[in-house]
C-alpha cells in the first residue's frame, strides 16, 4: 500500500453524538456532532498533505432509540433485526458527520472529500459469546420480569437482570463477539489512499459471519473500540486515538487512591487490565484495543477526551500506550 504520510484513526465515544441527559432529537445530535466536528477540523487543518484521518464511532444510544421506536410501532411495521438497525444508524450518524464536516471544511476553504461507508465486520459463529447464555451486551430498554419473560418465550431473547433493585431490572442481552476482520477493507483502503476522510465501522460494524462462503448478518453488537482497532490495521494507522469522556484512564478507578495514567507499556497495560483497573464494557475494551494495536505494530495508542484530542496528539495529555 502506498503510504507516505501519517495516519490517524480516531474512535469517537457516545458523548460525541448524544449526551446522556438528552432525548436524542436531530437538533441535539447535530449540535453535539458539530462540537465534535470542530475538534476534528482542528486536527485536519494541522495535518500534512499526505496524512490521512479515519473516523469510527459508537451507536449505542441511536440503536437503542431506534429499537424502542420499532418496538412501539411493531403492530404496524415489522421491527428490523439488529444487523439492519446497525446499518441504519451507520447511515444516520455518517450523514450527520459528513454534512457537518463538509460544511465546516467548505467554510474555511479546505478541500478534502469526506465519505462514510456502510461497513460489515466478520465475527466467528463459534465465538463464546454466541454459546448458551454467555451473551454480555445489554441493549434496548429496561424490562419488567413479565415483559422479559414474554420476549424470551416469544422471540427467544436472552434476558438478564442487570439492575437488581430497579422497578424494571431486566434487559435484553446480545452477543458481543470479537471482531475478526473488516469486510470492506479493500474498498476502505482505496478511499483512504485516494485522500478521503473515511468514516467506517460505525457502532462496531455490522456483525456478519461466513457460512458456505456467504456473509450472513447476525443479531449481535461488536465493541466499537475493538472493531476500530481492526480498522486501524486495515488503514495501517500510525496512531490510534480513542476519544471518550475522560482525559486519562485511571488506576484504582473510583477509589480514594485513584491515579491518572500518563503512559503505560503494553506489559503494564496487560497487568493493570488483569488486576481489574479498567471496567468491562467501558475502559476495559479501550485498553484491550490499544494493546492489540501496539502488538499488531502500531506506534502509539492514546485514550483521552474529545476536547483534548489535539493536545494529546502533541503528547501534552491523555493516556499513551506504547510498546516499551
Ligand atoms: P465511550 O462512549 O466513549 O465508549 P464509555 O462509557 O464506554 O465511553 O467509556 C468511558 C468510561 O469508562 C468513563 O466515563 C468511565 O466512567 C469508565 N471507566 C471505567 N474504568 C475506568 C478507568 N480505569 N479510568 C477511567 N475511566 C474508566
Ligand atoms: Mg464504550
Automatic annotation (TrEMBL):
Is Transferase given among the entry's keywords?
Answer: yes
Q: Is Transferase there in the keyword field?
A: yes
Q: Per the database record, which ranges form the Aspartate/glutamate/uridylate kinase domain?
A: 6-305
GO annotations under biological process?
L-arginine deiminase pathway
Q: Which domain of life is it from?
A: Archaea
An example GO CC term for this entry is: cytosol
Q: Which UniProt keywords apply?
A: Kinase, Transferase
- Gene Ontology molecular function: carbamate kinase activity
Q: Which family does it belong to?
A: Belongs to the carbamate kinase family.
Please give the name of this protein.
Carbamate kinase
Could you tell me the gene encoding this protein?
A: arcC
Amino acid at each position: 500500500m502506498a503510504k507516505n504520510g501519517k495516519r490517524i484513526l480516531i474512535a469517537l465515544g457516545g458523548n460525541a453524538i448524544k449526551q446522556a441527559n438528552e432525548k436524542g432529537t436531530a437538533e441535539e445530535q447535530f449540535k453535539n456532532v458539530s462540537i465534535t466536528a470542530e475538534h476534528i477540523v482542528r486536527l485536519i487543518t494541522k495535518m500534512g498533505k499526505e496524512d490521512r484521518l479515519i473516523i469510527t464511532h459508537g451507536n449505542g444510544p441511536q440503536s437503542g432509540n431506534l429499537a424502542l421506536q420499532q418496538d412501539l410501532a411493531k403492530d404496524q411495521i415489522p421491527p428490523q433485526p439488529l444487523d439492519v438497525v446497525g446499518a441504519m444508524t451507520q447511515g444516520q450518524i455518517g450523514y450527520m458527520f459528513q454534512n457537518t464536516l463538509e460544511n465546516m471544511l467548505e467554510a474555511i476553504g479546505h478541500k478534502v472529500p469526506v465519505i462514510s461507508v456502510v461497513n460489515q465486520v466478520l465475527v466467528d459463529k463459534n465465538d463464546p459469546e454466541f454459546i448458551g447464555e454467555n451473551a454480555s451486551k445489554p441493549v434496548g430498554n429496561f424490562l419488567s420480569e413479565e415483559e422479559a419473560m414474554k420476549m424470551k418465550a416469544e422471540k427467544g431473547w436472552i434476558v438478564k437482570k442487570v439492575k437488581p433493585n430497579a422497578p424494571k431490572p431486566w434487559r435484553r442481552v446480545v452477543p458481543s463477539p470479537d471482531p475478526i476482520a473488516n469486510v470492506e477493507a479493500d474498498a476502505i483502503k482505496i478511499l483512504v489512499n485516494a485522500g478521503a476522510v473515511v468514516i467506517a465501522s460505525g457502532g462496531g460494524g455490522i456483525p456478519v459471519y461466513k457460512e458456505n462462503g456467504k456473509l450472513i448478518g447476525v443479531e449481535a453488537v461488536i465493541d466499537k473500540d475493538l472493531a476500530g482497532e481492526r480498522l486501524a490495521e486495515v488503514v495501517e494507522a500510525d496512531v490510534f486515538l480513542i476519544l471518550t469522556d475522560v482525559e486519562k484512564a485511571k488506576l484504582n478507578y473510583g477509589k480514594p487512591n485513584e491515579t491518572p495514567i500518563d503512559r503505560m507499556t503494553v506489559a503494564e497495560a496487560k497487568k493493570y487490565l488483569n488486576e481489574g483497573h479498567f471496567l468491562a464494557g467501558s475502559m476495559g475494551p479501550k485498553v484491550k484495543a490499544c494493546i492489540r494495536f501496539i502488538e499488531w505494530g502500531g506506534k502509539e495508542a492514546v485514550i483521552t477526551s474529545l476536547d483534548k484530542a489535539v493536545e494529546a496528539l502533541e503528547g501534552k495529555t491523555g493516556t499513551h500506550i506504547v510498546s516499551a
